[in-house]
Each structure stands twice: as structure tokens, then as C-alpha cells.
Amino acid sequence: MPNLIYLLEHYGVLIVFGIVLVEQLGLPIPAFPILVVAGALAVDGDMNGGLVLAAALGACLISDFTWFRAGRHFGKRILRLLCRISLSPDYCVSQTEDKFKRWGPKALVVSKFVPGFNTVAAPMSGALGTPPGQFFLYAGLGALLWSGTGIVVGVIFHASVQQVLDLLSTMGSTALLMLATLLGLFLLYKFLERRRFRQALQIERIGIDELLDLIEQGEEPLMVDARSATAQALEPAVPGALFFNGKEPVPAMIAMDKDRHIIVYCSCPNDVTAAQVAKLLHQHGFHRAKPLHGGLDAWNAAYRSDQPAPASLLGEGLPS
After folding, report:
1. In angstroms, rounded to a whole number, what is the distance separating the alpha carbons of residues 196 and 175?
2. What domains does the chain contain, in order, with CATH numbers?
3. Are residues 75 and 81 in contact, defined by beta-carbon separation less than 8 angstroms?
4. What's the whole-model pTM score?
């Protein structure tokens, strides 16, 4: 552990840059604590606070611009990829899409303080066509605010931080083991949280082949679009689909036959939003509501833009 303190004092700027960079790129390594430690060490002159701030700011902007370009090039696909590899629950995209659309690029100023939001804010900026100059302005302000807050917290509580560092330095390899254990427990908690979330959304799904069979049999299933308004703006909906963005069924559904087949789709990983809506519809008596496995991607694979959708999906006059 004394060697770690030595490294922080002599190579702290590089360490801050590296840890902030990998954390902002998506690895589950908390970087804010290292900024607090750096701020505390800067008080006693062991680190240069200005260089630490510059290193953190540079790391944030490199990461943000990387995801911004990925969002600009790959669009919605990069958002789904982020949620697949993230240790946060899969609704990370669906819960933040409309928030970003409501506030626009200004949301980048506070995105790093909001769990989950930071993961998708930069690529979403690219996917929604935010001008690069505007992106750098708000992303830079957000990075400066987040990095500066960590350093200032370290400056304010430098005495307490220094006591912790002194204690760790006397513990030798035990301190490293303790830190590794804490990191492992954090990763385990996030993994269990993700698994619990998925288990809570266990519901029978319908495959695209089964859906096509229903259509051919004349069942006229009602298609329900459970995507956020932002996702709907990024990719066209199934023709005739009923948009569902609230917590209750829309009035047009209340008088519907409860035995009608209802197919709910989204464009999120593991169909989680569609599963949530299907479970809600079950609570209102629509026991044949099912999420579409594969979501909008599965539909688009079956019906390309140059092929007309079946007339039976026009919803019999339901609003779209």
C-alpha cells in the first residue's frame, strides 16, 4: 500500500487520467473517489490540482467524443449495445431517452451525476444529430463540473481523506485486499441487481414466426409500440401500431375485447420495456398481451420497408 501512495504522489495525474478514461468508456470502475483523493493530496502539494483537473477533463472529453461519434455512425444500435454490456438494469436507455429529448444537449451538463444517464448521453447526442460544437460545449461544461466537484470534495475533506490514506498505508497488503474485496462486492451487487430485474420481467414472449401465423389466420393482433418518444423519432413504428407511453392503457383500449391478441414491442435489450407494458396490460385484464421477442428489429427483418404491412394491423381505427 505505501507503494500505491507513492504512485499517487508521483504519477497521480496519469493514474487519474487512466481511471477516469476507462470509467467513462463504460468499465465499472468508480473514478469519482480517485478525484477526491487527488483533491486531498493537492492540498498538501503532493499533486498539482490544476493538472489533475486537466487530466480528468481530457479523459472525459476523449471518452464522450468517442461515444458521440459511435452514436452518430451507428445510431440506435450503439445504445442497445451499451445496455447489453452494462451492469446496470437494461432499462437504462428507455428511462433516459425522453429525459434527454426534453432537455436536449444541455442534459450533458449534469449527465455524469445521474447513474445510467452518463452511459447513454453522449451516444444519444450523436444519434439525435447534435452539432459537434454544441456537443463539446455542454459535454465540456459537464466534465468540468463533475471533475471539479470531486476535487473540491477532496480539498474540503482533505484531513479525513489523509487519515484514511495513512491508515491504509499501515495495513500493507491487507489494504489492497480490502479494496479489491469492496470492488468485487460492488460488481456482485450490480450483477445481482441486473439478474433480479430480469427475473421480475419473466413473461411468455411471442416470436415473429408465431406473430406471422396469427396474422395469416386472420386474428388481427393489435400492435402496441412501447418505445419512448425519442426512440419513435429515431426509427419508424410498425404501421397501425398504437403508441403506449403512459402508465395506464389509453382510452381506446378500455372498451376493447379482453381476448384480443395484443403484441407489445420495443427496441430495448431483452424486450424489457415491452415486457413491462405486457405485464401492466395483464393487470387490466388483457391476458393475451405478449411482448414480441426481438422487438422492432424482428419485425423489420420480416417486413422490409419495401414490403407493405398486412392490412389487418391497421388497428381497426385505433389512434396511432
Report:
1. 31
2. 1-199 (no CATH), 206-311 (3.40.250.10)
3. no
4. 0.63
